[in-house]
Amino acid sequence: MRGGRARSGGTNWVIRIHWGPFAFAEPPSAAGMRPVIMVQESPQSDPVPTVAPPTILPGWSRRLLTRLELDRAVVFALLLRLWQLLAGAVSVVLIALFFTGEMQGYYYTFAGLLALQSFFELGLHIVIISTASHEWARLRFDSRGRIVGDADARSRLIHLGHWMAAWYGMAALLFIAVVSMAGVVFFSLRPAGEVAWFWPWMLLVLLTGMLLGTLPLVALLEGCNQVATVNRFRLIQAVAANLAVWTAISLGGGLWSAVVAAGARLAIDLYLILVHYGHFFRQLLERPGGARIGWRTELWPMQWRLGLGGVFSYFEFSLYTPILFHYHGPVIAGQMGMSWTLLIAVQAAALAWVQTRAPRFGVLISQRNYQQLDHLFFRLTAISLVALSAVCLAAWSLVLGMYVAEFRLAARLLPPLPLGLFFLAFVLNHIPRCQEIYLRAHKREPVFAINLVSSSLTGLLVWLLGAAYGAEGAAMSYLAVVACVSLPAKTWLWQACRRKWHV
Question: Residues 96, 107: contact at Cβ < 8 Å?
């Protein structure tokens, strides 16, 4: 990976392109849309040498980036989201031209069922990022890419790698076996007409299971402060998957387009792990030579809450399309799926400001530098909330204009009323989402009970009101739970934990 380094006032600035998750047109996996792209201070841990840049950032540019809290991770993440939004426009046109409304419904319902991954992964990738970041505070890469530093921290990191490989290997096998058959049963309940879904579904589940196996390895890199490089490859994934899915759709690939996109994502993940960071992961094959991670005392207390919360979060974030598919047919499900993909893309762009700093939060907490932690968190949350509100308003206005003008492609998205309700809910939910990132950086999961209640209520209301009133009922359900449960309860808990832990 090539980049540039400029030195100004003792600060090293490295400028690189960074890459992100998957194509906008591809059904989102349960792993979610992860943050991408970044111009930040060069991390001490980056093992890749840099070369002199052709130009140096002007002083006013660096000051602007600093005031907006835009480091490489954030800038590139925002560029990725911009790519996804632009690519989404292309995808909408192609889907409208080459997919029937029924096929679009199957396409996005595939994504809703693949999100059952959370029942097998159980939130462990979040625990991996948090735990690895605490160990990496005492480690670094040397000039040859070797992990050096505190011997016990190195041993614990290696032991973490061994343990997560065993867990995810079993989880991937169970996911492939169970979800493939569950999908067959679900889709068989409704006549498919001319939509041939069986073999695309089976192969897509297989590839998604293999992607599940790569998830902990990428999470470990993020926890080891390799967010910049990971995000570069994520953007490569997004571009590659977009190009692959567009080609497949244009050639009449139908539901096989999702399979092609998943294959492209898997190829990029394997290159990142086996080639780009092959030396890093070969070191993790060594036997731990000292201290080890205490699974029962260090990982399990956070994981079981995250895992159970992740299972219930399926009902909060992934149940909409399958419910509408079952009760109202694939056409309505297709509108919901495409709109939900848009909503997730907008939310992910805003969360990039905070998510990409999670390893930095962990380092500051381990150093007990709570003042700097809070200052950074408040700035990031405020900036990202303003950005999210502006983008949501602009996107909703655009869809409203399309419906008023009776633009053909508008029929592939939800009508303005339910879409507006969803946008409002996402803006309100942004604050507790940021608060959760802050709390989890402490290697704790205090929001478990609240997530359990909110997810259960959302799933129940979406089932009842979505079945009776369609997309409007589903949107009202989500907004009600966010406004009346998630936002007030998590804000109160965040304030209480902050007072208790920072003493």
Answer: no
Give residue 483's identity as a one-letter amino acid code: A
Domain boundaries, the chain: 4-501
Residue whose token pair is 């762009």: 349
Averaged over successive runs of 10 residues, the pLDDT of the chain (503 residues) comes to: 37 30 37 33 37 47 56 64 75 84 92 90 84 88 85 90 90 96 92 86 97 93 86 87 93 94 95 92 87 80 76 86 93 92 84 81 88 91 93 93 87 93 96 93 84 91 95 96 96 94 87
**Selection from 330, 339, 449, 429 nearest residue 381 by Cα:** 429
Q: Do residues 298 and 67 touch, judged by C-beta distance below 8 A?
A: no
pTM over 0.90: no
Contact 250, 158 (CB under 8 A): no
Give me the phi and psi of 484, to 5 degrees please: -100, -20
Q: Which of 397, 394, 400, 416 is nearest to 471 (CA)?
A: 416
| String of DSSP letters for 117-171 | GHHHHTTHHHHHHHHHHHHHTTEEE-TTS-EEE-HHHHHHHHHHHHHHHHHHHHH
Q: Which amino acid is at 239?
A: V
Query: What are the angstrom distances between the C-alpha of 85 and each of 344, 388, 395?
Result: 11, 14, 10
Handedness of CA 21, 225, 381, 61 (dihedral sign): negative
